Amino acid sequence: MSSIVKEIREALAVLSIPEKAEFFPKFFKTGEGEYGEGDLFLGVKVPDQRSVAKEYYSKIDLKKLSELLSSQYHEHRLTALFILILKFEKTKDPIVKNDVITFYLNHLPYINNWDLVDSSCYKILGRYAFENRKEDLLRDLSLSEEMWHKRIAVVGTMHYVKKGSYDLTKEFVTRNLTHSHDLMHKANGWLLREMGNKNEAELIRYLNIYYKDMPRTCLRYAIEKLDESIRQDYLKGRI
User: Which of 116, 52, 47 is nearest to 78 (CA)?
Assistant: First the structure.
């Protein structure tokens, strides 16, 4: 293990809270057969992980960061992703940005829980795809059989939604609308809700076509911010 990785791990260990270390495995479903099966936790809060990332992002290169991101401990991986986001956001060098994207894609097996996905994908992969018109980076993941890849793809379109571009989000949601996993239902509904926050008419048009085919969780997420009367119309199938 490189000295810088050891130093980061020690910094996180100091911030460990025993009660959190006991709670997180239950919260992130690490039991046998659950989506986070086998994941290990130190018990470090997210704000503390962000602070460590800010301290070390300029001190560690991608080769050494790979050691941290491939750790069996959840907080090591999340902190590594926070570092990667900072490296991506703080540089204007297109070569560095390309290196970060390649690194991210090469380490997808370690981006394997919903918070790891949601904290990083739209800030790195989604932004890069939008700014470079490389939608196929996300589209290929949407077509993957791996659920975490599909979630990366749809949540990655958050950057597009923030910029007022909705077609990619609708494409990915529609493709995986009836996916078997609840985590995809939540992700799809979340992104539709964000689209509605920017453009309610766009959401309504989409819902009017697809809402009867949506899993209930997806629909509830999607309509959360609509007026109550409209929400009830969708929930009761009156549209």
Answer: 116
